[in-house]
Design a protein that fits this description.
Layout (H helix, E strand, L loop, with lengths): L1 H6 L19 H10 L7 E5 L2 H15 L7 H6 L7 H12 L4 E5 L7 H9 L5 H7 L6 H13 L6 H15 L9 H22 L12
Parallel strand pairs: 1-2
Amino acid sequence: MAEMLAAYRGDARPLVLSSEHMCYLSAPQVADIAGGLSGRDVRIVYYVRPQPDLIESTYKTKVMQANVRVAPFHEWLERSWKAFDYRLRIAPWLKAFGQEAILVRPYLSGAMDVAVDFARLTGFSLPNEQRAIRMRPSLDARSILILHEYDRLFPGKLKRDGMIEALRKVEQTTGKSSFRFVDEELKLRILDYYRDSNIRFSKMFLQDSEAPDLLTG
């Protein structure tokens, strides 16, 4: 990223940096980005969703990517609580750019398209072919459990893509499973864990949005 920012130094054209992983950057990493963007009018669009949904989605994505073997869900979650605290995640960006540069947008699952929302906010166009390219079919939690067991029995990526496609075909035939990693009991535990942090975060960033109670309701 440092090389990319250096390449655009002095270029007046709009520059978009977009990655789900950027919310996990450390304070020194964000400070480096701020230095690389020095002199630019920086606006940060930061999407949030309720932690129970985010945790479910993140775990499924990690298993599907499988750059390294992922721990079983509950073991992984016990190591990951801080990763989903929005106040901790936004803090380096708040320090480097200030609150006036940050626009927090609620991610309304099933009711909005993040790319379309971002394009509307920024004025960037989003051709239909680009929308088609970025769509990434997911697997339901039942299929993720099967894939996780497959990874345990057959470590490495041999025929893994074929396994994923087979699971997608099964889902298309039988329908999505209602099973979720985050059941109602765990959902309440998660909401309770983040309650105080979410209240403070929402007062700072979501009061004027269309979903001010997204994280606290």
